[in-house]
Design goal:
Blueprint (H helix, E strand, L loop, with lengths): L11 H10 L20 H15 L18 H4 L22 E4 L1 H5 L6 H5 L5 E3 L12 E3 L11 E5 L2 E2 L22 E5 L14 E6 L8 E9 L3 E11 L5 E12 L8 E15 L2 E15 L6 H6 L11 E17 L5 E20 L7 E24 L1 E24 L6 E23 L2 E19 L5 E20 L3 E12 L18 E14 L4 E13 L2 E3 L6 E3 L3 E13 L10 E14 L15 E10 L4 E10 L2 E2 L7 E2 L2 E16 L2 E12 L7 E3 L5 E3 L4 E11 L1
Parallel strand pairs: 4-7
Antiparallel strand pairs: 1-6, 2-3, 4-5, 6-7, 8-9, 8-35, 9-10, 10-11, 11-12, 12-13, 13-14, 14-15, 15-16, 16-17, 17-18, 18-19, 19-20, 20-21, 21-22, 22-25, 23-24, 25-26, 26-27, 27-28, 28-31, 29-30, 31-32, 32-35, 33-34
Length: about 725
């Protein structure tokens, strides 16, 4: 972490430039201050600062918190990209960070032809996704650190440009309403430790942040079209840029995608319209307003019995009336200001709002023959105001203090009813409303003593009002909750910017989920689930030799694991569990070793994990849907003429399907390949970029599946082909 001491004006430009080169410093909650040029008139100085900022902007500044506003540069610098882990200028992780953190660069992301969020998540170290119901391209299920993978992504915080996209962070953490298309992902990053102090709730498994394309520094138009198997078609249009004086910028993005999928009667149609704006008020402050509208309609594929899976995995036994509909509006407004002698202190205020509707249908009873369709309609509201900032204090040594305050309100109106197939009277089984109000505060202190970086802090969470009532049964639920969650991390650089060891410990929680409320049972326990995450690791980075990697050992202790039992359909407290494991991440850029291998690179990550019940009726058994191994890796080559090729694979190990450990999902490996051509051309004063490729997913047509419970299975997707063409024009 760069030192932040009082500096004379003559050294200001050098120090600020160094801060910009150290990506996401101090957990990267704010973009670095703009560099200062030599003394000149105020107007000229302002323009010079903005020009220098635009020239230095790079993918380095991928962040978890804040809006990733200044990540872009000219097409030739950003879209051509760098090596996978930033060995020649792409996104990198601050070397002194006190926990596991990894980044997927823009080039890596774009070369996966992402159809679903899962495809990007599966390449992130320590992250896995599971098949859930066959429509994971729209309802992803993500998992980290051996946490129970129940299909709802309930133990990880999933962010888009730093904004939490959980349906309700305190009452329905599932992202089954995930109003975001994978086509908008520009880069991605993952935290797996030392993050709970600043980000919460539900961070024990980790934090995933999907970063969308930043506003181009110059007027730019981009169009990407993907055509693939099973009638897949997607179009992504981006139009935007800054004014010549870099005072105001905006970008409009529209995604339109559809397809039939390989399952019968499971077609989908998704649209998303997003707008980013940035107003540079002056040299030290800006205002950003971002928003999006998303909608989706798709047929819902059924899970299959073993006999049905063997006979025809593409079949769909759901009635035609069963489908999924959803839409959402969400937006953020962020004001940022730098202050202080070196402009290294900052303050931010962010307001946010999200409205999402989900209409999910399912057949009744659970197994055929069906006689009714159950509809679960929910309207979800989330809004809040967050203040945060950083400043330095000098008490013998420099202390870098980060603070945050947040008020959050969320509401869900949920109605569930059954309608007989073929017509008949509707039976309403639930008409419930839940309101949660929460206050959170966090403070942490970072101190750098030579090669040692220490960070310690606290997060206070107060769910001071939670009330739920159901008009059908007349039942009510009222509870509140408050607690303090500490975190400590340390990093020691054995060789500055080359070798470092780190360790951290932090705690977090998950609130009760609204869909588990039993309004007919006044005695139902609404326990909060608590856990503690401990990790130790070592990281290495040597750009000269083209090497980068890390090794991390970790353990999570969890209490009061509350889950919907798939066997009985009853909410059950399984007791506590413990997970243990290790992560391996590595990359080799052979071009740094010898010119003969320029353009050739290898990258890989692997995680081994165990997850075991520590108490309760399943004590000693493995937690269901937690694979023993997960991993991803590949090889990439790019010729100077613009031709390139990538071949990679993702692996998911064996996992138990039920807590009794009687049924098991076998391991599988999926291979993928892409061959393309990418070049940039100077046309007049503008730049034209062309990227055309053919891609194949599940290259060897591996037959795989997930066993959902004792009797039902979810088939995997067979081999698919894609043609991916992108054209960008910078004026």
């Amino acid at each position: 972490m760069p030192s932040r001491r009082p500096c004379p004006r003559a050294a200001l430009a050098i120090l600020v430039s160094a801060a910009a080169a150290a990506p996401a410093a101090w957990a990267a909650d704010a973009p670095p201050p703009p560099p200062v040029a030599a003394p000149m008139t105020p107007d000229a100085a302002d323009l010079a600062r903005r020009a220098a900022l635009a020239a230095q902007a790079s993918p380095d500044e991928v962040v978890v918190r804040g809006t990733a506003l200044r990540l872009d540069g000219p097409i030739s610098e950003v879209l051509v990209g760098a090596s996978p882990l930033g060995l020649d200028g792409g996104p990198t992780v601050p070397f002194e960070v006190g926990g596991s953190r990894d980044v997927l660069s823009p080039r890596r992301v774009r070369e996966y032809t992402p159809v679903s969020v899962d495809e990007i998540a599966n390449r992130l170290p320590g992250v896995s996704s599971r098949l859930y119901s066959g429509d994971e391209h729209l309802r992803p299920s993500l998992n980290m650190r051996g946490m129970p993978d129940n299909g709802f992504t309930e133990y990880e915080a999933v962010l888009v440009d730093g904004f939490n996209m959980s349906t309700l962070p305190y009452g329905w953490t599932a992202i089954s309403i995930f109003p975001f298309t994978a086509e908008r992902i520009w880069a991605a990053e993952v935290y797996r430790g030392a993050h709970a102090i600043r980000y919460g709730p539900t961070t024990l498994g980790g934090v995933i942040n999907f970063v969308t394309p930043p506003i181009p520094t110059a007027p730019t138009v981009r169009e990407r079209v993907v055509v693939g198997s099973n009638a897949y078609l997607s179009s992504t249009t981006e139009i935007g840029g800054f004014t010549p004086n870099q005072k105001f910028g905006a970008m409009l993005t529209y995604v339109d995608k559809s397809g039939d999928t390989f399952r019968d009667d499971a077609a989908f149609d998704v649209n998303e319209l997003a707008l980013k704006t940035l107003w540079n008020i002056d040299c030290d402050s800006w205002l950003a307003v971002n928003g999006a509208h998303w909608r989706d309609v798709h047929g819902l594929p059924s899970r299959l019995t073993r006999a049905e899976l063997d006979a025809d995995p593409s079949q769909n036994t759901n009635p035609d009336e069963v489908d999924w509909k959803g839409w959402a509006y969400w937006g953020t407004a962020t004001y940022h200001r730098n202050y202080g002698a070196c402009a290294d202190n900052w303050f931010e205020a962010m307001a946010y709002y999200k409205l999402a509707r989900r209409a999910l249908e399912s057949p009744r009873p659970a197994n055929p023959p069906y006689n009714a369709v159950r509809s679960a309609d929910s309207d979800n509201y989330a809004s809040g105001l967050e203040l945060r900032g950083e400043f330095s204090a000098y008490l013998g040594v420099e202390h870098r203090l980060h603070w945050g305050l947040r008020y959050h309100r969320e509401e869900i109106q949920r109605t569930t009813f059954d309608e007989p197939l073929g017509g008949g009277p509707r039976t309403v089984t639930q008409d419930a409303e839940t309101v949660n109000q929460a206050f959170a505060a966090n403070l942490d202190d970072t101190v750098k003593l030579g090669c040692l970086t220490l960070q310690a802090g606290l997060r206070f969470e107060d769910l001071f009002d939670s009330h739920a009532e159901d008009k059908v049964t007349g039942g009510e639920k009222d509870f509140d909750f408050s607690d303090v969650f500490p975190g400590v991390s340390a990093t020691y650089e054995l060789v500055p910017e080359r070798w470092a060891v780190f360790a951290n410990v932090h705690s977090s929680f998950r609130a009760p989920q609204t869909f588990t409320y039993d309004f007919t049972n006044p005695a139902q326990e609404l326990d909060f689930e608590h856990g503690t995450n401990v990790e130790v690791g070592v990281r290495h980075r040597d750009p000269r030799r083209g090497l980068a990697g890390s090794v991390v050992l970790w353990q999570v202790d969890y209490s009061d694991f509350i889950e919907l039992d798939p066997q009985t359909n009853v909410v059950t407290n399984y007791g506590g569990f413990k997970t243990q494991g290790f992560d391996l991440v590595g990359e080799v850029d052979f071009g740094a070793l010898t010119r003969r291998l320029c353009g050739l690179s290898l990258f890989a990550n692997a995680t081994h994990q165990t997850s075991e019940y520590q108490k309760g009726q399943y004590e000693g058994n493995d937690v269901q849907h937690v694979p023993d191994w997960i991993g991803a890796g590949g090889i990439r080559y790019e010729h100077p003429c613009g031709l390139y090729g990538v071949m990679d694979a993702t692996y998911r190990g064996v996992a138990w399907a039920v807590p009794t450990n009687d049924d098991q999902t076998p391991a599988y490996t999926l291979w993928n390949a892409r061959v393309g051509f990418r070049r940039t051309f100077c046309v007049g004063r503008g730049t034209l970029e062309l990227d055309a490729a053919v891609a194949c997913k599940n290259l060897f047509d591996n037959d795989y599946y997930l066993q959902h419970n004792a009797t039902l299975y979810v088939p995997g997707v067979p081999r698919e082909y894609f043609l991916d063409v992108s054209i960008g024009w910078e004026f």
